[in-house]
Amino acid sequence: LEKMTDLVAVWEVALSDGVHKIEFEHGTTSGKRVVYVDGKEEIRKEWMFKLVGKETFTVGATKTKAAINIDAVSGFAYEYTLEINGKSLKKYMENRLKTTNTWILNLDGMDYRIVLEKDTMDVWCNGEKMETAGEFVEDGTETHFTVADHSCCIKAVSSGKRKEGIIHTLIVNNREIPEAVE
């Protein structure tokens, strides 16, 4: 495997199916462009005469749309920006904080990353979409699923405040798991 000598940018992107690493090589003399997602080559273009532009690809199990913009800043300096679903990475991540909850926990010596997509109520665990069973309870709803023979439940309860909306809590083995900040 050749050394990544033209590596100009690396990003970490947290999606429902996991945290993905995007690496970009840009040969400013050869015009070479290479995009790697999680170490796997997605795009390779040699001898591009146009040094600026855009490379589009998908990331993760959900085939999330991504693009790297290549812009000339001055002279031979370039700026590389990553877009996810048409938004800058920063905007995408800010929006994601509102639409998902993420918990990191350890069960029987194994690490698990559980993500709730609030709009669809889909639950992901370590990159797999989980089978869930939802039920209405006195103070809200409960979404039940199993991780490594442990029964898990995400409780959704109204905060009573319009600004806060619904509070989602993960309970595993009758223990509340604190939400992770990614």
Can you offer a commentary on this structure?
This protein is mostly beta strands and 182 residues long. It has 2 domains: 7-85, Beta Barrel (Lipocalin); 96-177, Beta Barrel (Lipocalin), CATH 2.40.128.180. The chain contains 1 helix and 17 strands. The strands form 4 sheets. Strands 13-14-15-16-17 form a 5-stranded antiparallel β-sheet, with no helix packed on it. The protein has a 4-stranded antiparallel β-sheet with strand order 1-2-3-4, with no helix packed on it.
Question: Keywords for this structure?
Answer:
four-stranded antiparallel beta sheet; 182 residues; five-stranded antiparallel beta sheet; 17 strands; Lipocalin; mainly beta; 2 domains; 6% helix; elongated; 1 helix
Helix share bin: under 10%
Kindly provide the radius of gyration, computed on alpha-carbon positions and rounded to a whole number of angstroms: 20 Å
Which whole number gives the mean pLDDT?
92
How many angstroms separate the termini?
31 Å
- Secondary-structure element series: EEEEEEEEHEEEEEEEEE
